[in-house]
């Protein structure tokens, strides 16, 4: 990874590359400097939502970005979907594929998860600081553990030329551009990628998996669902299964 090239092409203040880390989301906080990007090719303790482990083999791309601003907790809810758009657009452009977004933090290719996004922050009196958004992408073919082999995928089998540097540059260019873009435009981008809208889903709620129909992505990136009993709900947090 050419960190100087990444700095030059993204405008990010500090870029760090480590071949191996425990978790980029954890280790980047040791830098204590906003507008910092940490990149790795392997995580020994990759993290997912709800305390889950995130499988992070050497054929992947893992990076975290420490934002250079504070914001309300409500504003911080936009980080994950905006990064999702940035990742999806970048993968499509560089690899010539057609990815989709599964609300709220997964990127899919041919129905399989190739990327997860995790945003973490410290909250005091509804103000978020030390805001980190982490991205893990299965770039090249790998052997997945038994428990995820049916749901996990990768972008490409080919590794003739390593495109991970190009990919992280494009993702961060997209994210920084989209972050200042008009919200309505971003929501439309997200809706176009949310190909599950109109389909039957299951909402994971209080330990149950409740059948519903995904109706729409709202203007605040929440998910509007209609349960089988006719009840309608806007989900701001949570998890769905397709």
TrEMBL record:
<dbReference type="InterPro" id="IPR045864">
    <property type="entry name" value="aa-tRNA-synth_II/BPL/LPL"/>
</dbReference>
<dbReference type="GO" id="GO:0004077">
    <property type="term" value="F:biotin--[biotin carboxyl-carrier protein] ligase activity"/>
</dbReference>
<keyword id="KW-0436">Ligase</keyword>
<dbReference type="GO" id="GO:0016740">
    <property type="term" value="F:transferase activity"/>
</dbReference>
<feature type="domain" description="BPL/LPL catalytic">
    <location>
        <begin position="1"/>
        <end position="183"/>
    </location>
</feature>
<dbReference type="InterPro" id="IPR004408">
    <property type="entry name" value="Biotin_CoA_COase_ligase"/>
</dbReference>
<dbReference type="GO" id="GO:0005737">
    <property type="term" value="C:cytoplasm"/>
</dbReference>
<dbReference type="InterPro" id="IPR004143">
    <property type="entry name" value="BPL_LPL_catalytic"/>
</dbReference>
<protein>
    <submittedName>
        <fullName>Biotin--[acetyl-CoA-carboxylase] ligase</fullName>
    </submittedName>
</protein>
<dbReference type="Pfam" id="PF03099">
    <property type="entry name" value="BPL_LplA_LipB"/>
</dbReference>
<dbReference type="GO" id="GO:0009249">
    <property type="term" value="P:protein lipoylation"/>
</dbReference>
């Amino acid at each position: 990874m050419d960190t100087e090239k990444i700095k030059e092409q993204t405008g990010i203040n500090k870029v760090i590359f480590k071949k191996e880390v425990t978790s980029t989301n954890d280790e980047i906080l040791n830098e204590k400097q906003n507008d910092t990007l940490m990149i790795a090719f392997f995580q020994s303790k990759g993290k997912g939502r709800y305390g889950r482990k995130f499988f992070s083999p050497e054929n992947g791309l893992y990076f975290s970005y420490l934002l250079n601003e504070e914001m309300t907790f409500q504003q911080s809810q936009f980080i994950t979907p905006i990064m999702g758009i940035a990742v999806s657009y970048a993968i499509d452009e560089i690899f010539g594929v057609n990815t989709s977004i599964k609300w709220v933090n997964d990127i899919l290719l041919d129905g399989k998860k190739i990327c997860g996004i995790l945003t973490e922050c410290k909250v005091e009196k509804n103000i978020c600081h030390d805001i980190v958004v982490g991205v893990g992408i299965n770039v090249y073919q790998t052997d997945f553990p038994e428990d995820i082999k049916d749901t996990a995928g990768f972008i490409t089998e080919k590794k003739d030329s390593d495109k991970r540097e190009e990919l992280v540059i494009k993702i961060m260019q997209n994210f920084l551009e989209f972050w200042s873009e008009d919200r309505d435009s971003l929501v439309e981008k997200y809706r176009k990628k949310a190909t599950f809208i109109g389909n039957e889903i299951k909402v994971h709620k209080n330990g149950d998996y409740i059948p519903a129909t995904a109706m729409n992505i709202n203007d605040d990136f929440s998910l509007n669902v209609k349960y089988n009993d006719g009840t309608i709900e806007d989900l701001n947090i949570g998890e769905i299964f397709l």
